[in-house]
C-alpha cells in the first residue's frame, strides 16, 4: 500500500490546554469508531502474500487408485491455522475455485483445492460423488492436512477443517461431513438433497408436516424425467479425454475398425463416467423411467440417506433461479440436518444454475461462507443460525440479463426448523371450470417455459412463455387488493381424470398483470406423475399439488394464475396421445407461504447506519474541536466503506453537467471487483473519458459519489495514491530519455525511490535499450509503452488505462493483453477504455457499455455477448434439419441459415426469437436449444443502437 500524507500539524501558537482538550475529545470518540470498523470484519489486504503449493496426491487402492491434482493456498500469517477444503462444480476443476481460495487464504485459512476424479488433470473416472470414491478422496485430503505443521489440529490426525463447494462440490461437502467426523463445518451451495428427486421430480403431493417454506415432495417409485438437464449433466462429463477419439490414427480403414472396437465405443459413449453411472443414464434416457437400478445409483450419491450423520454446523446457500436443484433441495437438507440438533443457517440468493448471481451477490456469498468458518473454525463471534432471502420483486428473470444487487430480508430462524414456528400461509381463492387437456402424440409440440441453464425463456422471447393451445387448464384468483410476497412453495388441490388412469402433467404459478402480461417466476414448473387416477371425468381424483418454491411479489391489481399443462420441452413426455380433464377440487384454494422479516439493503448496510451515526457524532465533536483550536485548519476525515478492499472502484449516481447545460455523464452507477479487468466501452461522446477524469480527481462530479477502495475520490484525495493512470496522451517530456521521464515522474510523487519498483514496471511494459534514448526519437508505440510503464510505477492497486494499445503493432498488442491479465491475477484491478472491441473481448473479464453519458449495460463479457443478435438453434431430432432450415429461411428478414455441429446458426434480423420458435414448433419441429450467438462487436452495436 502506498504511503498517504501524514496528519496536519497543529499551529505552534496554540496553548497547551486547548490542544489537550481537543485530543481528549478525539480520544473519547475514537474507541466508538474503532468498534464499528472492527465490526466490518474486513481483513488487511495481503493478496500478494498468499503463497501456493502444487502437488499430486494418491488416493484409493487397486483398480480404483487415482492421483488427485491439488493446490494449497497458504495465508500470509505464520502459525497453525484452520483449513478449508474447497470443491469445484461439475465439469470444472481446481482452477474454477482459485479466486475463492485466495479470498479465504487472505482471511487466514490454509485452503486446499483439488480436481475431482475424472476432472482437470486428476486421474480416474467420475463416480458422481460416490462414497467409495470421491467422498473417500476427501478423507485422504484431510489426512494430508493433518500432517502439516501450518494446519491447526484438534487432535492427532484430526485437523480443524471446513468444506465448501457449489453444486457437485456442495454435495461432496455434505456427504463428506456424513462419512468423516473430523469435518468441523460445511458450506454447501446450490446442491442437491436427492438426485432421484432432482432428476425424477414428482410434486403431486403436499408436505403437510414439514412446516418449512420450501418443502416439496420427495420422489417415490416414479417421477417425470428431467431429460434436458440430465443430458447436459451427462454430456459435460462424457467427453473422452485426449483428442476425443480413443484409438484414432493410421489410415482411414484402420481408424474406422478401431472406432468400432467395443472398448472404444464404450469410451466414446461414456467418456469419463464409471460404467454403472453410464448404464444408469442410458437406461433413463432411453425409457424416461425411474428403474430400481437407476434409483440405486442416484441415491448412493445423495446426501438424503445420510443426513442423520451430519453434526458439523451447516451453512446452506441455494439459488432462487434454479430449475436443476430448486429451493426444495436445500429445504430437505436443512430439515434432515437440524433433526440431529446440528446448527443450520439458510441463505437464499438471486441466482443459481439458470442465472449467475451479480458480482455484489457473489461477494456477499463469499463473505457468508468466510464468516461462517470464522465462527465455527476460528472461534469468532457472529451469527450462527437464521435465514436470509432476496426481497421479493415482481420482476421476471430473463436470458442474458445482467442481474444487479438487491435488498435482502433477514429472519432470526428458518421457519419450521427446530423450535422455530412453522411457516405461515395466506389462502387465496381460485376460480375456473373443469377443462379438457390434450396430450399430443410423442409429446410434440411441447410447451416451452424453461431452457435449462438459461432460466425463464419468457422474458427473453417478448415477455411470454410458450403454452400450446388446448394443452393446459388455467385457474385464476380474483384481482389482488394488496401485494402478496410469496416465499416458498405454494400448494393447491386439483381434480384430474385420464382415459388410462395415468397422466404426466406440469403445474405452474403465473403472475398476471392488469394488461394480461403473464410472468412465470424464475421459469419454474412442478412435474406431476399421476397414477391410479379416475378414468371417469364425472368423478375425478383429487390430487394435492406442491407448486415450485419461489420468491416473488405479486403486486396489487395483479392476479395469480395456476396452469396445469400436459407438456414441457425440458422433460420426457408420454408417447401416446390422450385427452384428460383438469379442474379444481371442491373448495380448493391456493396456500401461499409468507415469511415476514427485516428488510436490509445489502450485506453490511446495518453497519453503515451505525457507522454514519458515529460519523455524525464525530462531525459534531470535530466542529467543537475546531472552535477550541481557533478554526485554524479544516481537516477532512476519510472513512472507508465496509467492502472497500474488495471493491476498488464504485460509481454511485454520478452526473457531470457543465454551465452551458451539456450533460457529459448522467446518473452513472457501477462497481468493479478486485481482480477484474473491466472494459469501458462506448462511441465517441459516450462520457468514458469524462468518467475517468472524475475518477482521477481531475474534475469534480456535479452529483453522486465515486469511491476508490471505499474512500471518496476527489481532487487531492489520499486514496488516489493507490491508483495508476494513463489517460489522454502520454505527457512525456520529449527532450528527456524514457528512463529520465519515469524517474522524474516518480520523484514528483515524493515517495521513496525503492517504492517505485522501476525495473519491474519497465519489464512489465516490455521496454528495451531504447529506454535511454530521448523520447522525441520514439515511435508512437514506444511512447505508449513508456506511458504505460509510468502508470505502473509503484505497482498500483488500481490501474486505469485510456486506449492503451494505440500505436502498438499486433505482437505488441498480444503481449500487452497478457501483461494486463497477469497484472489482475495478482489481486489488482485494471480498467481499460478502448474502441478496439476485439481487444476488449480477449482481454477483459467484465464490461460496462456507455452511450450518451449513460450506462447501457454492465456484466461479464459472456453476459454482454449473450444478450441478442444471431441465435443458435439446437434441434431435438437432427433429421428435422432440412425442414427447420426451410422454416427459418421463410421468415421475413432472416439471413442465411448456417449448419454447424451444434445446430443451426441464423441472424433473425427483424424477426423476434419468439416468432422463430413459434414457427418451428407449429411445424412440428422439436427445439432443444435457442441461445444467442454473436461477438462483442455485434452486442456493442446492438446495445448502442438500442440506446
CATH topology title of the largest domain: Rossmann fold
Text of the CATH class of the largest domain: Alpha Beta
- Let me know the CATH homologous superfamily of the largest domain: Alpha/Beta hydrolase fold, catalytic domain
Read across the widest sheet, the strand sequence of neighbours is 1-2-4-3-7-8-9-10-11-12-28
Category from helices, strands and their pairing: alpha+beta
Structurally, the number of domains stands at 6
Rounded to the nearest angstrom, the distance between the terminal CA atoms is 40 Å
What is the β-strand count? 42
* Low-confidence blocks of residues: 1-47, 240-259, 397-405, 455-463, 603-611, 629-638
How many DSSP helices?
Answer: 23
CATH architectural label of the largest domain: 3-Layer(aba) Sandwich
Task: Outline the structure in words.
Residues 649-877 form the ABC transporter domain. Pfam families: ABC_tran (PF00005), Peptidase_S15 (PF02129), PepX_C (PF08530). InterPro entries: AAA+_ATPase, AB_hydrolase_fold, ABC_transporter-like_ATP-bd, ABC_transporter-like_CS, Galactose-bd-like_sf, P-loop_NTPase, Xaa-Pro-like_dom, Xaa-Pro_dipept_C. This is ABC transporter. The chain crosses the membrane at residues 608-629. It is a single chain. By secondary structure, the chain is α+β, with helices and mostly antiparallel strands. The chain folds into six domains: 47-201 and 302-411, Rossmann fold (3-Layer(aba) Sandwich); 227-287, no CATH class; 424-598, Jelly Rolls (Sandwich); 604-642; 649-863, P-loop containing nucleotide triphosphate hydrolases (Rossmann fold, 3-Layer(aba) Sandwich); 866-946, Alpha-Beta Plaits, CATH 3.30.70. It contains 23 helices and 42 strands. The strands form ten sheets. Strands 1-2-4-3-7-8-9-10-11-12-28 form an eleven-stranded mixed sheet, sandwiched between helices. Helix 1 (16-39) runs antiparallel to helix 13 (605-628) and helix 15 (738-749) packs parallel to helix 17. The longest helix is centred in the N-terminal third of the chain and has 24 residues, at 16-39. The radius of gyration is 30 Å and the shape is globular.
Amino acid at each position: 500500500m502506498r504511503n498517504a500524507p501524514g496528519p496536519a500539524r497543529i499551529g505552534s501558537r496554540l496553548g497547551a490546554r486547548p490542544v489537550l482538550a481537543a485530543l481528549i475529545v478525539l480520544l473519547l470518540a475514537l474507541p466508538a469508531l474503532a468498534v464499528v470498523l472492527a465490526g466490518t470484519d474486513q481483513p488487511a489486504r495481503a493478496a500478494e502474500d498468499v503463497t501456493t503449493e502444487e502437488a499430486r496426491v494418491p488416493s484409493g487402492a487397486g483398480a480404483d487408485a487415482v492421483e488427485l491434482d491439488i493446490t494449497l493456498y497458504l495465508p500470509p500469517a505464520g502459525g497453525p491455522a484452520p483449513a478449508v477444503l474447497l470443491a469445484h462444480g461439475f465439469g470444472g476443476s481446481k482452477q474454477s475455485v482459485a479466486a475463492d481460495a485466495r479470498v479465504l487464504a487472505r482471511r487466514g485459512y490454509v485452503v486446499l483445492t483439488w480436481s475431482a476424479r475424472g476432472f482437470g488433470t486428476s486421474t480416474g473416472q467420475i463416480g458422481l460423488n460416490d462414497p467409495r470414491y470421491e467422498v473417500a478422496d476427501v478423507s485422504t485430503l484431510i489426512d494430508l492436512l493433518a500432517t502439516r505443521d501450518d494446519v491447526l489440529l484438534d487432535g492427532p490426525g484430526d485437523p480443524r477443517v471446513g468444506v465448501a463447494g457449489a453444486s457437485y462440490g456442495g454435495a461432496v461437502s455434505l456427504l463428506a461431513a456424513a462419512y468423516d467426523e473430523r469435518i468441523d463445518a460445511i458450506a454447501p451451495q446450490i446442491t442437491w438433497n436427492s438426485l432421484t428427486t432432482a432428476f425424477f421430480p414428482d410434486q403431486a403431493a403436499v408436505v403437510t408436516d414439514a412446516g418449512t417454506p420450501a418443502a416439496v415432495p420427495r420422489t417415490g417409485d416414479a417421477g417425470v424425467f428431467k431429460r434436458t438437464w440430465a443430458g447436459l449433466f451427462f454430456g459435460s462429463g462424457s467427453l473422452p479425454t485426449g483428442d476425443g477419439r480413443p484409438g484414432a490414427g493410421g489410415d482411414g480403414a484402420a481408424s474406422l475398425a478401431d472406432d468400432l472396437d467395443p472398448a472404444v465405443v464404450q469410451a466414446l459413449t461414456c467418456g469419463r463416467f464409471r460404467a454403472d453411472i453410464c448404464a444408469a443414464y442410458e437406461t433413463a434416457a432411453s425409457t424416461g423411467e425411474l428403474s430400481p437400478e437407476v434409483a440405486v445409483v442416484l441415491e448412493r450419491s445423495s446426501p438424503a440417506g445420510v443426513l442423520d450423520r451430519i453434526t458439523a454446523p451447516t451453512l446452506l446457500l441455494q439459488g432462487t433461479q434454479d430449475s436443476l436443484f430448486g429451493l426444495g433441495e436445500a429445504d430437505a437438507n436443512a430439515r434432515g440436518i437440524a433433526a440431529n440438533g446440528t446448527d443450520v443457517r439458510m441463505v437464499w440468493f438471486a441466482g443459481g444454475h439458470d442465472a449467475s448471481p451479480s458480482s455484489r451477490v457473489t461477494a456477499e456469498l463469499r463473505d457468508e461462507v468466510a464468516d461462517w468458518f470464522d465462527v465455527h473454525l476460528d472461534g469468532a463471534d457472529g451469527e450462527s443460525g437464521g435465514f436470509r432471502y432476496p426481497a421479493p420483486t415482481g420482476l421476471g428473470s430473463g436470458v442474458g440479463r445482467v442481474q444487479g444487487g438487491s435488498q435482502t430480508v433477514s429472519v432470526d430462524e428458518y421457519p419450521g426448523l427446530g423450535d422455530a414456528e412453522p411457516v405461515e400461509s395466506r389462502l387465496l381463492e381460485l376460480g375456473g371450470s373443469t377443462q379438457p387437456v390434450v396430450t399430443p402424440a410423442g409429446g410434440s409440440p411441447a410447451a416451452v417455459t424453461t431452457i435449462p441453464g438459461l432460466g425463464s425463456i419468457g422474458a427473453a422471447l417478448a415477455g411470454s412463455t410458450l403454452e400450446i393451445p388446448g394443452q393446459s387448464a388455467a385457474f385464476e384468483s380474483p384481482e389482488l387488493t394488496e401485494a402478496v410476497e410469496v416465499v416458498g412453495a405454494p400448494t393447491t388441490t386439483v381434480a384430474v381424470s385420464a382415459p388410462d388412469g395415468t397422466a404426466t402433467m406440469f403445474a405452474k404459478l403465473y403472475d398476471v398483470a392488469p394488461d394480461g402480461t403473464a410472468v412465470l417466476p424464475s421459469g419454474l414448473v412442478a412435474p406431476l406423475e399421476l397414477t391410479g387416477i379416475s378414468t371417469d371425468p364425472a368423478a375425478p381424483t383429487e390430487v394435492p399439488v406442491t407448486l415450485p418454491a419461489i420468491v416473488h411479489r405479486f403486486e396489487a391489481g395483479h392476479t395469480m394464475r395456476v396452469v396445469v399443462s400436459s407438456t414441457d420441452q425440458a422433460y420426457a413426455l408420454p408417447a401416446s396421445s390422450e385427452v384428460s380433464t383438469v379442474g379444481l377440487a371442491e373448495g380448493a384454494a391456493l396456500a401461499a407461504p409468507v415469511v415476514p422479516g427485516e428488510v436490509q439493503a445489502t450485506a453490511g448496510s446495518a453497519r453503515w447506519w451505525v457507522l454514519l451515526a458515529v460519523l455524525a457524532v464525530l462531525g459534531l465533536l470535530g466542529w467543537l474541536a475546531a472552535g477550541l483550536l481557533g478554526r485554524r485548519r479544516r481537516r477532512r476525515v476519510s472513512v472507508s466503506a465496509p467492502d472497500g478492499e474488495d471493491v476498488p472502484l464504485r460509481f454511485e449516481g454520478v452526473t457531470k453537467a457543465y454551465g452551458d447545460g451539456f450533460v457529459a455523464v448522467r446518473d452513472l452507477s457501477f462497481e468493479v471487483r478486485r481482480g477484474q479487468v473491466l472494459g469501458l466501452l462506448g462511441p465517441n461522446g459516450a462520457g468514458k473519458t469524462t468518467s475517468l477524469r472524475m475518477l482521477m480527481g481531475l474534475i469534480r462530479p456535479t452529483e453522486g459519489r465515486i469511491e476508490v477502495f471505499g474512500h471518496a475520490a476527489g481532487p487531492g484525495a489520499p486514496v488516489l495514491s493507490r491508483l495508476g493512470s494513463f489517460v489522454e496522451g502520454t505527457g512525456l517530456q520529449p527532450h528527456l530519455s524514457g528512463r529520465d521521464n519515469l524517474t522524474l515522474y516518480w520523484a514528483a510523487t515524493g515517495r521513496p525511490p525503492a517504492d517505485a519498483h522501476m525495473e519491474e514496471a519497465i519489464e512489465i511494459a516490455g521496454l528495451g535499450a531504447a529506454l535511454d534514448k530521448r523520447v522525441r526519437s520514439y515511435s508512437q508505440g514506444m511512447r505508449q509503452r513508456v506511458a504505460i510503464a509510468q502508470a505502473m510505477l509503484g505497482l498500483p492497486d488500481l490501474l486505469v488505462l485510456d486506449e492503451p494499445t494505440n500505436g502498438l503493432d499486433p505482437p505488441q498488442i498480444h503481449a500487452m493483453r497478457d501483461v494486463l491479465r497477469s497484472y489482475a491475477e495478482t489481486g489488482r484491478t485494471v480498467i481499460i477504455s478502448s474502441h478496439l472491441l476485439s481487444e476488449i473481448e480477449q482481454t477483459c473479464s467484465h464490461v460496462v457499455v456507455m452511450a450518451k453519458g449513460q450506462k447501457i449495460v454492465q456484466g461479464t463479457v459472456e453476459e454482454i455477448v449473450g444478450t441478442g443478435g444471431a441465435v443458435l438453434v439446437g434441434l431435438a431430432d437432427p433429421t428435422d434439419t432440412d425442414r427447420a432450415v426451410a422454416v427459418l429461411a421463410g421468415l421475413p428478414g432472416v439471413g442465411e441459415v448456417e449448419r454447424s455441429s451444434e445446430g443451426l446458426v441464423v441472424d433473425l434480423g427483424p424477426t423476434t426469437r419468439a416468432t422463430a420458435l413459434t414457427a418451428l414448433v407449429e411445424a412440428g419441429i422439436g427445439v432443444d436449444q435457442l441461445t444467442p450467438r454473436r461477438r462483442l462487436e455485434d452486442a456493442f452495436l446492438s446495445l448502442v443502437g438500442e440506446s
